[in-house]
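Fold this complex.
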Amino acid sequence: MDFFDHLPLLILLSSLIPGLVIFLLREESHGLRTSLNLFGAVTKLALVGLMIWGVYHEWVSDMRWQITPDLELVLHADALSVVFVTLSTVLWLVTTIYAIGYLEHSPHRSRFFGFFSLCVTATVGLALAGNLFTFIIFYELLTLATYPLVAHKGSAEAVRGARIYLTYTLGGGVLLLIGAIWLHTIAGPIDFQERGVLSGLTQLDPWTLRWIFLFMIIGLGVKAALFPLHGWLPQAMVAPAPVSALLHAVAVVKAGAFGIIRVVYDVFGVEYADALGLLPFLGAIAAFTIVYGSVKALSQDHLKRRLAYSTISQVSYIALGAAILGPLATIGGIVHLVHQGVMKITLFFAAGNYAETLGVHHVSEMDGVGRRMPATTLAFSIAALGMIGIPPIAGFISKWYLGMGALQAGAGYWVIPVLIASSLLNAAYFLPILYRAWFKPAAEKWPKEKPQSGRWEMSGALMWPPVITAAVALLFGLFAAAPFSPLEWATLITAREYSR
Amino acid sequence: MMNDAIIWVIIIPLLGSLISISWSRYASLTAIISNLLALAASIVIVNQVYQSGPFIHELGGWQAGLGISLRADALSSVLLLMSMLVVSAATFYASSYFTDAVKRARFWPLWLMLVVALNALLLSGDLFNLYVTLELLSLSAVALTALSDSRAALQAAIRYLSIGLLGSLVFLAGVALVYMGYGTLDLLALSNKIDASPLSQVAFGLLTAGLLIKSALFPLHFWLPSAHASAPAPVSAALSALVVKVAVYILLRLWMDVFDQVLTPLSAMLLGTLGAIAVIWGSWQALQAQRLKLMAAYSTVAQIGYLFIFLPLIVALPEGSLKDAAFTALLLMALTHGFAKSAFFLSAGVIQQYCGHDRIAELAGTARALPLTTFVIALSGVALIGLPPSGSFLGKWYLVSSSFQAGQWWWVVVIAVGSILATAYVFRILGYAFGPRESVGRVLNGGRKEIPALILALFATLILGFGSAGLWDFVSQHRYFPGS
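Structure:
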């Protein structure tokens, strides 16, 4: 299958080329820019559909490009990369539509959409990376592509937030790089492999491997916002809403979490990592971050900041899933990669809509917002309930599998309390918002209301994306057992990671 | 004709220089044509080495020892190609840089003389010719620095001249000692003769000291920032990217090929340590710099430091693929820096001419007014930091892995800190450049100035980052003359 070998490259080019062309467009060529964006997004989606089909039938897709005698650029599609690629591609399409609506009259749209496309290219690239070297290249590119997006508004606050973001992520990048090079010098090139590369190399010194693991987890933990490396995430909230949505649901935070999964499962091998005693360490950090993020979220009045702390907490479920030995926990972690993405992007779209239409930025200003913007608020509510873990929304599935996995691995005595505590805290910071939105009477006047025009509560490009993603979150929970659902796919991956 | 490319690459710019003195009206055209021809000749030379290995050309058929011999191998031919690419791009740039007719008339003959010196130096096969070409290089570089006739530039040029002369004298003393002891200056002959004796050790020390001054290794870097920062932009590009680097080239040549019996791990460690200090100190000064070109000059001090960190590692690693990899990585770092720093200086020149100054704190709006140039600054900044995709990313990758392999992990800390500081100084500029201002420019403002810089920056990043696989084989196969 020659075409199938080139599929990963085509998937990259489908956003890279439109991105580069968009940089050259004049500000006014709105129509051309929009069609390029949508054309790229739809093409990518079609190509990813092909890829899902191929990987399901275990066709091998593998492209190599020699960089130096012992370093290769490898693009490779396996079941795990398909999860992340699909998530990014679908959410990119939705976010592009949203961003077109959101940035309608603001300056520098060409620059914005150019970097936006580069950002997705880097995300998809690190999903398709077939070895550690390639992963790191795209990991650093992602940092570079998101920096201008965070700084986009150009205000002193935005530049400051972007600088903090850059300091954290590039600092982490250096540690990840050192860990990876160290690993190369003792173990040779590291091609990602189901059940791990290192588990087959028994002559390596365990303490060296533990140090390397530490370096790499710190490097990845910065993007995944593990405590105490999460400080950049609340600062990066100054970015425009579509960027925040992408950052929290797909691109940056998920890149870190995805990297942790790769390192645990496909570099060390989960059983070997457990034998080295690394999993309890990772599990403890993840568990602490889950509770810490939720506690911090309680006291935030700024809606986006509350959501940011919620992300810190929720993304750590993925790391937690990786840190518990056993297939059910693995399924829980991987499926949460998708579920958290769909739910969190809904929340950020909704937050952006409140800010854009009514000027509402704070939780305390949200009284009665449900009657003024029912569709947006309905989407927000579904996603928030999903985050708490109420069935039948997707979030419930993740928590169920994590809990069952912990029991299966005999780690129930500490994981179950963490899950319960976190769900209670989730409820404590989300339910008051829902109560205010639906049941409290609205204030006389919104902080900064835009005149209503047309049939809907706001322009369709802004209203439909959260409605769609909320519906998806609901469907993922309702039809979790259907073929090609995230849960089924996570089960497929897990079967490949554990079977011998 | 094709076999004589090694002569043409020196003769053509020399003729060009003479023509541009006589017919200054056609000087820039002459310079462009002669540089493109010399570029073609350098490609032919690389191809000759690739096809049939390193070779020697004896001028006029006189044997080595009597006549002048030119030689080309993997190291020198690749550096030659890089210099010709940089010089050609800078020539296109310079053809629309000078507005003053008098300056233009002075610039071109000197510029072409600089090219002659560079090429002759890289192809020289004996110590005396290395000395002569090094001297010629310094003199034309000083004269070019003095072209921007501000008081600061003149002071810098005088300082550059005197320190350069000191370096040359020390180097010459080393050459004389070698001749006294061994009766020949031919590098190939010397590489078989030199043994560890007090005389060869003193000569080695003197040669090295002279070259350390020329290559501006900390703490002998003090002359560099003012000279590189005050020269006209195309000159700064050549000074930082090439003139400093060929001194490092001679040092490498002597250390690796000629005096390999004399050098001790301790001396390599000493230079590595100075290199490490240069990385930290240079990067820190670059972060403090108030002007764009001064920042770039300090960044050169730091980047040269990286090259010296390789020395103790190459000495410590066992013969074979690990040593070869470290050596090639050094070369890759040098090439990347050559392209990236010249692109940076050319872009800084565009900004300086557009804004009328190069004060970093007042660069707000540059990104909007000069998008392409800002992009080039960012791209070359990526290469200076060592982020992917750039040649220096690969170079640093091997620098770190060689440190682990040689058991000298402390360099890793230096590289990490240096890279973080480099990130800080590059993004500091970009942070200011993206600041708000009203004027909105077109993507391309001055093609003859902006496109050469873009091409150089692409060489530093995409081409060396993704397309340098062939370099590794080329260097490991054609580094040595057969039998030596």
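The beta strands of chain A are 61-68, 71-77.
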